User: What shape does this take?
Amino acid sequence: MDDLKIFTGRANPDLAKRMCEYLDLPLGRLSIGNFADGEISCKIEEDVRGRDVFIVQSTCTPVNEHLMELLIMIDSFKRASAERITAVVPYFGYARQDRKDEGRVPITAKLVANLITRAGAGRVLAMDLHAHQIQGFFDIPVDHLFATPVIDQYFKGLGLNEEDCVVVSPDEGSIKRVLKHAANLGGSLAIVDKRRLGGVTRQANIIGAPIEGKTALIFDDMISTASSICGAARMVADAGAKAIYLAATHGIFCGPAIERLGKAPVEQIVVTDTIPLTAERLLPTMKVLSVASLLGEAVKRIHRNESVSTLFR
Assistant: This one.
């Protein structure tokens, strides 16, 4: 482990520190700032020649600033002769546009993948990508982790009776993700049918297991404006659920998300620390779980050229 070095940008330094605590390693010394005109400056404060370097940087708000910061850090380590550079991107931004669903639009997920690769990264470690096919956008190895084990372990600790639980997908696109939770936690499966009418998305029906008198667990990969997941929660509440829990890996919480979640008929909102949450963006009903040990274990296995696939289970 002597050749392993972990560094962090300004996006989520607390997560990087917790990863280093798990690995019993010091956080690498790196100075990042801004010039007077806003340009990002970067200086590595220790020798990294021939080292295996991991850079922890979520591309969360402000997305463009943190993405550019990641690219500059990668370039700095490449020019400092690091043996291998792995970009650890717990939350991968610009992932929504992963295909051309209409004319004259970009595929930004592919563009960002190209930028990270051309900057000099030799590997990427990400968590719960918005679309799994983004792995194929990179011409370098990608380790794609899931927060499912961490989230499911928390729900198991609540002592919920699986016969009284129904696992809910907030839309058709999340069915595969929700099936994994259902396999771990037990319980029946329901799907909220989401329809787009006149450019407005609305929840229309609930398909699958009955909801009335059940504890509903609604899972998604991210909560952005919270429109979809709160709409699903209201549908489930109207169907007679006795308790509702929301869970997502990435708590983006932009726009009216906090206000909507505060009014949602839910017992608890569970997210992870892939994106840092300030006190102003936390509600009394929120629970933040750490994925530092999961990411730290993945870093250790990548460094030792060991299998990472066991962490998917």
